Amino acid sequence: MPNLSFVHPSPDSPWGTYLSQVDRVVPYLGHLARWEETLRRPKRTLIVDVPIEMDDGSVAHFEGYRVQHSLTRGPGKGGVRYHPDVTLEEVMALAAWMTVKCAAVNLPYGGAKGGIRVEPRNLSMKELERLTRRYTSEIGLIIGPDKDIPAPDVNTNAQIMAWMMDTYSMNVGSTATGVVTGKPIPLGGSLGRVKATGRGVFVVGREAARRVGINLDGARVAVQGFGNVGSSAAELFTGAGAKIVAVQDHTGTVYNPKGLDMAGLMSELHGHGGIGGFKGGDKIKPEEFWDVENEFLIPAALEGQLNTERAKRVRTRVVLEGANGPTIPDGDLVLGERGILVVPDVIANAGGVTVSYFEWVQDFSSFFWTEDEINVRLDRIMIEAFKRIWETADQHRIPLRTAAFVVACTRVLQAREERGLYP
Ligand code: NAD
Predict the structure, then answer these.
(1) Does any ligand 1 atom lie closer than 6 A to the CB of residue 324?
(2) What's the gap in Å between 314 CA and the centre of ligand 1?
(3) In whole angstroms, what is the distance from residue 325 CA to residue 346 CA?
(4) Residue 367, SS3?
(5) pLDDT tens digits for 251-297?
(6) For residues 273 and 300, is the Cβ–Cβ distance under 8 A?
(7) Reduced to 3 states, what is the DSSP secondary structure of residue 320?
(8) In angstroms, what is the span from residue 299 Cα to ligand 1's centroid?
(9) Model confidence over 16-26: pLDDT tens digits?
(10) Which end of the chain is more exposed for a tag (fewer CB within 10 A), N or C?
(11) Who contacts 365 (Cβ-Cβ below 8 Å, separation ≥6)?
(12) Which residues are CB-contacts of 25 (< 8 A; sequence separation ≥ 6)?
């Protein structure tokens, strides 16, 4: 464990998980391993107090963070999460995974992430807006279109990005659309962004299926988390002939070995905020989700879901990590020993940041692409990145996660070496 005085990670925590992943890549870095410590330390961490006036006239304080893990290959890039359990340590891990993800798909970005410890469901829209604007002003010191570009993550959306863009623009005195991505389309957002992460999950899933000999037509898929990522990926798998046999979200778990009706699930989600009450399948206990037999298991909710015990039980051939950090390091080892292919988060869910990159490029040029152009470019980047990582895994006989880290960390540390150490 590195000597950072301000975090004390357990091995299964997000930062502890990230550090173990770095341990596994070091033997493959060759002479670049002399820079490995830069991977284990965020370049910059900012903790801000976010005081707001509540609708009842009281004042509430929230803790906010922005972490820039690496700016070596370009500006920081990474979402902002609103959740009561967000910690500095979690944001550090999410920022570091952004460094690896952007380098794995070869986008010209470093890695960053932000968050506020808040339960947004307890705030009114006006309170949420004040919280977002004050947070944006506080982190305004270090963000900007060529410095660090936030985006949506869990519990943040296009409206929150619009408030962030407006607040930053007011503070600098000109409209700066490129300061955030994931914006509404009329404010410089990109077509295809909303479904981009789910689309990327599907595209790399299809590539993996081809290599391990799974026919998508009739393949069984289980999805944990039916939000932006999980529902978009499920729609595309269904479109390719696969069956969604189990879905779990925070409201419940439903199972149907013949396949759950996608349109019915979507209308349940939109009507009730979750799929727990869906009638087109059997309601099962949350823990039973991990026993459902399938070809593709897609964790698309939270970190730390595939622990050792669940990794021993799951009956799947491919784990496609839609969420960030859903598999703990020991779970990874068990899945590998059982011959289950894990397509890691840093490539599987990179579709979102790839279209965010397209959005940022379009904002700079004020010239916007069609959805078809976006999807063709997205598919090409995902397929090329997956191929490179697959070949690296083959060459060294290592898991795809370590291979993705080899490709990404080599790019980051190569850039570090070529830039040299200031001063
Ligand atoms: P979201 O808020 O749209 O959806 C989250 C889903 O997880 C919801 O269906 C929710 O009900 C479910 N969930 C929450 N707690 C749960 C629990 N305890 N058990 C089961 N399900 C639970 O979020 P999202 O944008 O879809 O993000 C999901 C994951 O994907 C996160 O790890 C996020 O960091 C990652 N990710 C998102 C994007 C993106 O573009 N949105 C990009 C890359 C990675």
Answers:
(1) yes
(2) 20
(3) 9
(4) coil
(5) 999 999 999 999 999 999 999 999 999 999 999 999 999 999 999 99
(6) no
(7) strand
(8) 9
(9) 999 999 999 99
(10) C
(11) none
(12) 402, 405, 406, 409
Any idea which residue has 């060759």 for tokens? 30
| Residue 322 CB less than 6 A away from ligand 1 | yes
Ligand 1 centroid to Cα of residue 14, in Å, is 16
Nearest CA owner, ligand 1 atom 36 = 323
Indicate if 283 belongs to the active site: no
- Give dist(CA 297, CA 326) in Å, integer: 11
**Is 196-348 the same fold as 42-175?**
yes
Q: What is the dihedral of CA 62, 353, 329, 406, to 10 degrees?
A: -130
Which helix (DSSP H) or strand (DSSP E) does residue 146 occupy? Answer: none
State the residue for tokens 């790019």.
Answer: 411
Q: Where are the domains of the chain?
A: 42-175, 196-348
Residue 282 carries which side chain, given as an amino acid letter? D
Q: Determine whether domain 42-175 maps to CATH 2.60.40.10.
A: no
Tokens of 58: 């009281």
Encoding tokens for residue 331? Answer: 């779970």
Which residue matches tokens 């990145």? 385
Which residue's structure tokens are 């729609």? 235
Q: Binning pLDDT at 50, 70 and 90, where does residue 3 land?
A: low
* Burial zone of 261 (CB within 10 Å; 0-12 exposed, 13-18 middle, 19+ buried): middle
Per-residue tokens: 45: 């961490």
291 neighbors 315 (Cβ within 8 angstroms): yes
Tell me whether strands 243-249 and 76-83 are parallel, antiparallel or unpaired. unpaired
List, for residues 124-135, the tens digit of each pLDDT value: 999 999 999 999
- What would the two tokens of residue 13 be? 């925590």
Quote the pTM value.
0.96
Give the right CATH number for 196-348 from 1.10.760.10, 3.40.50.720, 3.10.310.10, 3.40.50.2300.
Answer: 3.40.50.720
